[in-house]
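Predict the 3D structure for this chain.
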Amino acid sequence: MKPIRVLVAKPGLDGHDRGAKVIARALRDAGMEVIYTGLRQTPEQIVQAAIQEDVDVVAMSILSGAHNHLLPKVVDLLKEEGAYDEVLVIGGGVIPEEDIPYLKEKGVAEIFTPGTSTSVTIDFIKENLKKLALND
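Done. Predicted structure below.
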């Protein structure tokens, strides 16, 4: 069985990536292949990297407050490219609880807020990729 491939991305002007690096390491330690895009990526750059790398998951970390714009934009671009149905899109970072329903409505599968155990994120990815595979 091939390992799960995850693109960890930092959309927007957010210059803090410690959380993204922590989750990238945890995913790698769980046996996943992790591609980290680095800081200040546009939604277009994230989607192109996801397609080029043929990833299973796009995991975005955002602290800048622009989550209601940037995360749905990535989902919309994945849909335009015909890749959304094969990719699990998740987000994390400093995102107010009241914004989470909107982001899920826009196509982000889950939002992980500060303090969430990395094992919760890992389990979510594994369980929801199984559901995606069953829908193929």
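The radius of gyration is 13 Å.
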